[in-house]
Amino acid sequence: MKCLRVVRQLKEDVWCPGNRPVITSQHLQMILLWECEQNPSSKSWLDFGSCFLRLVRRLLKCSRQRFLRHFFVRRANLLKYADANHLDNLADKLARFLQRPSLDMASLDGLSNC
């Protein structure tokens, strides 16, 4: 999904750069699975901006709550052992981004839908 690729790229380049990010691709995949369950209609995924912002908002919520339930092992919290300070820093970055979300759409090869 294009939305997931863009969120992953922002995670790597802006929100969690470095060798040991607090959020990994596995975390982002779980967020996507939960969003797909909550929004199962294909119409929910047609607009790139809407689905992208939904993923970012869920990532913000999970980082603030320090809780991300595994989609398949429901009793597992994927953020249980994550560094609280790193999650707080991530939450701050995500909240600032969501106040004025912007992407250079030209650099994203004309992504039109998720």
TrEMBL record:
Coiled coil: none annotated. It comes from the Eukaryota. Residues 2-95 form the Mab-21-like HhH/H2TH-like domain. It holds the Pfam family Mab-21_C. This is Mab-21-like HhH/H2TH-like domain-containing protein. The lineage of its organism: Eukaryota, Metazoa, Chordata, Craniata, Vertebrata.
